[in-house]
Design the sequence.
């Protein structure tokens, strides 16, 4: 299970780390621009405004890590339900509510009928639309709500993760940049590379622990409704 939940997460986390380390090298002037043709190159310091823009872009990469991680995690939950042959009747009530809500929000009756042969089983996968899960709104509060909705734990080690408190800053800056409310220069002017790396460190710890919680949830089959099952 771990390889499924963690494979892409680990790759994306490495991408963010490499980018932010590059920003730190720029800030410390251990990396500079080489301009010109072979034999006639000039070394230039990175422009201050460009450095601010690159720092602000770090928030976009961090948000991408957060949203992709949670989208893939929900995909894994639905894949598990499908691969285990779980029927609608076997799921806990809160998961049934998610399925019904997904059907209502994501599908027309005609499209739904095209994907269903056995309604008790097929309605689960047919209701899921990965592209409509999130829309720039993910922070720790939202993840906690998702965890409650699906039935997995959102508890993390606050000393390492800050309980995901940095996610709201990442979300706010990402949305401000994406929608043109903030300039890249303004977002990047008051933050250092070391501060970005510290945010990244806590966010990675937070997401990793959320994935571990989902891993336990799936391993224990906590999505099953045991109320009607006799031992």
Sequence:
């Amino acid at each position: 299970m771990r390889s499924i939940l963690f494979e892409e997460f680990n790759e994306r986390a490495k991408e963010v780390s490499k980018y932010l380390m590059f920003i730190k090298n720029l800030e410390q002037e251990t990396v500079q621009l080489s301009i010109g043709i072979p034999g006639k190159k000039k070394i230039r310091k990175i422009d201050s405004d460009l450095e601010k823009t690159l720092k602000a872009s770090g928030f976009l990469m961090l948000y991408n890590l957060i949203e992709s991680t949670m989208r893939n995690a929900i995909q894994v939950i639905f894949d598990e339900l499908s691969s285990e042959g779980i029927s609608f009747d076997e799921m806990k009530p809160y998961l049934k509510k998610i399925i019904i809500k997904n059907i209502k929000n994501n599908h027309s009756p005609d499209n739904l009928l095209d994907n269903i042969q056995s309604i008790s089983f097929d309605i689960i996968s047919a209701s899921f639309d990965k592209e409509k899960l999130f829309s720039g709104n993910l922070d720790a509060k939202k993840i906690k709500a998702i965890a409650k909705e699906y039935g997995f734990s959102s508890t993390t080690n606050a000393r390492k993760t800050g309980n995901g408190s940095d996610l709201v800053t990442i979300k706010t800056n990402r949305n401000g940049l994406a929608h043109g409310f903030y300039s890249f220069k303004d977002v990047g002017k008051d933050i250092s590379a070391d501060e970005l790396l510290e945010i990244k460190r806590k966010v990675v710890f937070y997401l990793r622990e959320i994935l571990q919680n989902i891993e336990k949830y799936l391993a224990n089959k906590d999505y099953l409704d045991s109320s009607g099952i006799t031992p």
